[in-house]
Write a structure and sequence with these properties.
The protein has helices at residues 27-30, 38-50, 54-67, 72-84, 88-101, 106-118, 122-135, 145-157, 161-174, 179-191, 195-206, 218-230, 234-247, 252-264, 268-281, 286-298, 302-313, 324-337, 341-354, 359-371, 375-386, 398-414, 418-431, 436-448, 452-465, 470-482, 486-499, 504-516, 520-533, 538-553. It is an all-alpha fold. Helix 8 packs antiparallel against helix 9 (161-174), helix 12 packs antiparallel against helix 13 and helix 23 (418-431) packs antiparallel against helix 24 (436-448). The longest helix is centred in the last third of the chain and has 17 residues, at 398-414.
Length: 554
């Protein structure tokens, strides 16, 4: 079943030049704080800011501006340093000063555009970026690539992906191998469903010039993971997220997506580890916590699952597409696993109340009602699910509908209505004839209806599909015994016990056929084991009573 996924949004990159300086020295240490060389201070301001040391860049810019306060380019560089510190109002003040001195300064207009974008004012940002392109006068040590890339980010944020792609393409015409622009282009392509083109763009980014402007290649691996997920290639998606978390181990979103993927391939222990890491990074993450709950349920760790689901419900409310209903459904699963069926019913009712169309929750509700022996209500819920007028048989719904037909078979068997049970199991098999357990259940329903040949045929089919089907061998033995094939029944029961020797019903059946075969000693041993495993085993009690009665009559 495919799910729409929530993926991390590419953060804005405000570094506008490739780092060329790896460290900084304070002015006091350098002994050059009195140097009256504007070009030196301006160059130092630019290099420090580009190298990721904007505080040092500010100091150098201030030295330059003190020497030449009417230099528009210095004020633009000062704005760049402030922008790198995400001090957006201060950036606007600095670039306004630059534009007052030179209104044709395209670089100052670009920094103004980027500051507006940082303040979540995309319309103003777009207008200013357009003004920078129209002016196209002074770019300092930058180029129009910067403004085209920023324009693409604005348009992407405004929900205009095609226009964003045009902007990125214009940037790439100027610098064809710039890694970060290719990464942004990849993001837009993936988010608009152009998955293969997106993967190509991400791979080009990894092979590009290495100019990530403060980002890392983990961005491209994350987007490739998203694309491969949507294409259904989970192995490649998991590999992509492996690479992403190796580069950015503190990125909780990548851990979440990896956990979700591992769930889909039923690697529940590995998925639990990914969700645990995500929760360590974001302790209030409802998605991470409900993922933990689900994977713990799959590993039958119900107490831990219950705790995780309760934390998810008290978390940050950032859910997967099913919302809080998923947490309530998983909480119901945990409580049912602990045998707390009344609490489980209350939880599953919450899930259904939040999301009435949540078919899996409806199916679980039917199962919980069955455990509570409310068979009529359980049947009513399951019948609504299998009604084609209410639930069309689609690829997405089919597995749930099959499960509901199977549940109906169990319910009708519990109601001692074997014909209805047989019909339900046959409906399930029509939709999916490859489930060994369903064939075994059909065999039991035929046996209850005294259709022993049909019961034998269904049990044989169950074993054909799964040679290790304990229930298949057991039901085959019961059908053979009913048909008087005692030697064959003995072999079937013994095969079932090879798989699980703790089943009292199988030991009882074996004892019964051993009596029929005249092996009283072996029969009594089998019956004693059965009664030890289950003192209330009905067949054993009946056999022992019959033996006692026969002995008294002698």
């Amino acid at each position: 079943m495919k799910h729409a996924l929530q993926f991390v949004t590419l953060p804005l990159a405000f570094w506008v030049g490739q780092a060329s300086l790896t460290g900084s020295v304070s002015l006091a240490q350098s002994g050059m704080e009195t140097l009256e060389d504007v070009a030196y201070w301006q160059n130092l301001c630019q290099l420090q800011t580009q190298a990721g040391n904007p505080e040092a860049g500010l100091s150098a810019c201030e030295q330059a501006i003190a020497l030449e306060p009417e230099n528009a380019n210095l004020w633009a560089d000062y704005g760049f340093a402030l922008l790198s510190l995400e001090q957006y109002p201060e950036t606007l003040a600095a670039v306004d000063r630059a534009l007052n001195l030179n209104e044709q300064n395209s670089l100052a207009l670009t920094y103004q555009c980027m500051a507006y974008l940082g303040m979540d004012l995309p319309e103003k940002a777009l207008d200013t970026c357009d003004a920078a392109l129209q002016t196209n006068s002074f770019w300092g040590n930058q180029s129009p690539t910067l403004v085209w890339r920023t324009r693409g980010q604005i348009l992407h944020q405004m929900g205009q992906p095609q226009q964003a792609l045009i902007a990125y393409d214009r940037a790439l015409q100027l610098e064809p191998n710039e890694s970060v622009t290719l990464a942004y282009r990849c993001q837009t392509l993936v988010e608009t469903g152009e998955y293969m083109h997106g993967i190509t763009a991400c791979q080009a980014a990894l092979a590009g010039d290495g100019n990530w402007l403060g980002e890392t290649p983990a961005l491209t691996w994350g987007y490739q993971g998203q694309a491969h997920t949507q294409l259904g290639d989970y192995a490649k998606a998991i590999d992509a997220y492996d690479r992403a978390v190796a580069l950015e181990p503190e990125n909780a979103e990548h851990w979440l997506q990896q956990g979700w993927l591992l769930e889909q391939i039923e690697e529940f222990a590995a998925a639990a580890l990914s969700y645990t890491r995500a929760v360590e990074l974001t302790p209030e993450s409802s998605r991470g916590l409900v993922g933990q709950c689900r994977t713990l349920n799959q590993q039958t760790q119900f107490e831990a699952a219950q705790a995780a689901c309760e934390q998810a419900l008290a978390g940050n409310g950032d859910w997967w597409p099913l919302g809080a209903a998923q947490a309530w459904r998983e909480l119901a699963h945990a409580k049912a696993g602990l045998g707390e069926y009344e609490s489980a019913l209350a939880a599953i009712n919450r899930a259904v109340g939040i999301h009435p169309d949540y078919l899996q929750a409806q199916s679980d509700r039917s199962v919980i009602l069955w455990y509570l022996a409310d068979y009529e209500s359980a049947a009513e819920v399951a019948n609504r699910i299998v009604n084609p007028e209410l639930t069309p048989v689609t690829e997405e719904n089919q597995a749930i509908i099959v499960n509901s037909w199977t549940n109906l078979g169990r319910i009708y068997s519990s109601l001692e209505q074997p014909q209805l049970a047989i019909n339900a199991y046959e409906q399930a098999i029509t939709l999916n004839g490859q489930n060994s357990e369903t064939w075994a259940n059909l065999s039991a329903a035929y046996w209850l209806d005294e259709q022993y040949t049909e019961a034998l045929n269904a049990a044989e089919q169950s074993i054909t599909l799964n040679w290790q089907s304990e229930q298949g061998w057991q039901n085959q033995g019961a059908a053979q015994a009913a048909l008087g094939l005692y030697s064959q029944a003995q072999l079937s029961y013994e095969q079932s016990l090879e798989i699980n020797n703790q089943n009292a019903d199988v030991w009882a059946g074996l004892g019964a056929v051993q009596l029929r075969l005249g092996d009283a000693d072996a029969a009594m041993e089998s019956l004693e084991i059965a009664i030890q495993l289950n003192p209330h085993q009905v067949l054993v009690q009946q056999i022992l009573e019959a033996i006692a009665k026969a002995s008294s009559e002698e």
